[in-house]
Write a structure and sequence with these properties.
- This protein is of the alpha+beta class.
- The chain has one domain.
- It has four helices and six strands; from the N terminus they run ββββαβααβα.
- The chain is globular, with a radius of gyration of 15 Å.
- The model has no long low-confidence stretch (mean pLDDT about 85).
Length: about 100
């Protein structure tokens, strides 16, 4: 069983950095980017912030690349241009660890 954690990062109207946990979701079906994107979009729509989607940070798994591409497709259908290649970021820990391990 996989769990997806969604955390929002933003600055409040008075300039305070906020990092609330939006939702912890159990992934009932296979761990594919399409299935994860469906859950992420559902949560974004529940909060009414799907048009405020910014950078996506995740590990180096290919299914996270697929997830962001599906989010971009959903945004295009919603008449907002979201560049998956620009907004997909890798967790720095998942970048450094393999390098250190190989060294």
């Amino acid at each position: 069983m996989a769990v997806i954690g969604l955390i929002a990062h933003f600055t409040s109207r008075v300039g305070v950095r906020m990092n609330p946990v939006m939702r912890l979701c159990t992934l009932e079906r296979s761990h594919t980017g399409a299935n994860m994107a469906e859950i992420v979009m559902k949560v974004l729509r529940e909060y009414g912030i799907e048009e405020k989607l910014g950078y996506f940070v995740g590990d180096n798994a290919n299914n996270n690349d697929t997830l962001v591409r599906h989010l971009a497709e959903a945004e295009v259908e919603g008449n907002r241009l979201y560049d998956a290649s620009e907004y997909r970021l890798r967790c720095v820990g998942h970048v450094i660890y393999p390098s250190v391990k190989a060294f």
